[in-house]
Amino acid sequence: MKAAPAVQRRLLDLAEVDTELDRVAHRRRNLPELAEIAEAEQVLRAKRDAVVAAETTLGDLDRDVKRLETEIDQVRARADRDRKLLDDGVPAKQAENLNHELETLKRRQGVLEDESLELMERREAVEQDVTFAKSELATAEEKLSDAQGRRDQAFADLETTEARSSDRRKTVLAELPTELVTLYERVRANKGTGAALLRARRCGACRLELDRTAISDLRAAAPDEVVRCQECGAILVRTSESGL
């Protein structure tokens, strides 16, 4: 295949654009913010679970407190009724039974009030746990939001770079012959780099220095002959820097 040296040099511009597009694609896949977001989402799930667990415990305690309060109210109401009966006057035997019941109710009320006090103390501690868990959750949400914002900005910057490079690629492709582009694309698909500068007898794609035989063949090739690296297959663009 033949192409004017100036046309072949334009392959370097195409290779440069493709390298930039590859860098954009690689960076998009490997943004540090992506790993940070994944970790932040995991932390956020844990913090949400912690809030749910704390609120569930608090709800259970509230039900227990309400149950005890109801029992205490019932005991007090029963005691008030017994005292009213005593005040109204009842037979001695019934009065004895009522007094015994009042003593029992008094002890029961004391036990319930102690349990209620203990529950209220536990509830206060759990309420603090809920407040702390919600604070931790808010912090986790802020960290995730911040990482997502930086990711979105990075993606936007990459999209701008990609659009600019894609436009430049179209411009370069329009100036190259179809046959040469086809070869370039085939080599690039197989080897990763379609064309590279031969500088100081070293291939710019594989970075290997060509042996004497290869250099002799390149020196003998016509300037418009499209040549390739014997090591990696990339199209070699020869210039005054090639050392031939």
Task: Describe this protein with a few key phrases.
single chain, 244 residues, Helix Hairpins, four-stranded mixed sheet, 5 helices, 5% strand, CT398_CC_hairpin
Q: Which architecture of the largest domain per CATH? A: Orthogonal Bundle
> Can you write the helix and strand succession as a string?
HHHHEEHEE
Q: Largest sheet at a glance?
A: 4 strands, mixed
Give the low-confidence spans. Answer: none
Number of helices: 5
Describe the structure.
With 244 residues, this protein is mostly helical. It has two domains: 5-25 and 177-238, no CATH class; 31-166, Helix Hairpins. Helices cover 77% and strands 5% of the residues. The protein is built from five helices and four strands; from the N terminus they run H-H-H-H-E-E-H-E-E. It has helices at residues 5-29, 32-88, 92-174, 178-191, 212-220; strands spanning 195-199, 202-203, 227-228, 235-238. A four-stranded mixed sheet has the order 2-1-4-3. Helix 1 packs antiparallel against helix 3 (92-174) and helix 2 (32-88) packs antiparallel against helix 3. The chain is rod-shaped, with a radius of gyration of 42 Å. The mean pLDDT is 94. Residues 14-192 form the CT398-like coiled coil hairpin domain. Pfam families: CT398_CC, Zn_ribbon_9.
